[in-house]
Amino acid sequence: MCVGALPPFDHPHIFLDMGSEGEIVCPYCSTHYVFNPKLTTGTSDPASAVYTPKTA
User: Fold this and answer.
1) Fewer Cβ close by (within 10 Å): the C or N end of the chain?
2) What does the DSSP 8-state code read for residue 38?
3) What value, to the nearest 5°, has the Cα angle with vertex 40 and ends 35 and 46?
4) What predicted TM-score, i.e. pTM, was given to this entire model?
């Protein structure tokens, strides 16, 4: 899921389907995502790129 910058400067939250490709670019913010099979669910490289929404 790409959210762009942190709220309130984000763009619509969209899910990007890589399909069989190993990388994709977000059409809103041009963030380049590269699949890394060594990462586990909920992790990222860099770790600061993991988005965790704040609860109300």
Assistant:
1) C
2) T
3) 65
4) 0.70
